[in-house]
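Prompt: May I have another protein with tokenized structure?
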Amino acid sequence: MKLNKTNKSVKVKAPEGYHWMTEGGRHFLMKGDYKPHKGASPEAPFRLVTHDKGKSSPAMDAARKAKKG
């Protein structure tokens, strides 16, 4: 299964008692309520992806075949 990246994104709020830290384009959760400081944010954008349901890759087919015996 291959993920297809879209141009859309959705902002996700950090859970209560945490805030997002962004570094190098990646988002990480940090314990502690949000307070403005470098890299901190109460919510972070995540790109949306889709995938083709039912389609598989050669590696997935081989794994299924090996599992069946």
In short: Residues 1-49 form one domain. The chain has a mean pLDDT of 88. The CA atoms of residues 35 and 41 lie 8 Å apart. The chain has one domain: 1-49.
